[in-house]
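Input.
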Amino acid sequence: MLVPTPYNDTTRAIIGAAIDVHRALGPGLLESIYMRCLEFELKQRDLKFTREVSIPITYKNQDLGANYRVDLIVEDVVVVEVKSVAVVLPVHRAQVLTYLRLTGCPIGLILNFNEGTLVEGVHRVMNQD
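Output.
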């Protein structure tokens, strides 16, 4: 059951866009292909997003000159991580939790396109800060 949040409409629209992509392409392609198609679908739904958002890595207040890359941030509140993997692992959830903490976004979606139906590949992650 979906826990009520103020972001349900946004996450529902993102998931709907991803389902359309999955229905058209099916599983087994590269993440980069799904990303491009998902971006197209988000535009069709008039959702504002930024892609490959760069987040600097700092350690003990020192900029290390390296960056994390978040696949998408939609409507300034939802981190979207696109995957095409056999299994979504705990490390993938940890990755999204880190992105949520660093961006201040309240919610994230892991979309694994390597599933028979996309619904099986949708994982919601809430910011715990």
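Residues 8-126 form a domain with the Trna Endonuclease; Chain: A, domain 1 fold (CATH 3.40.1350).
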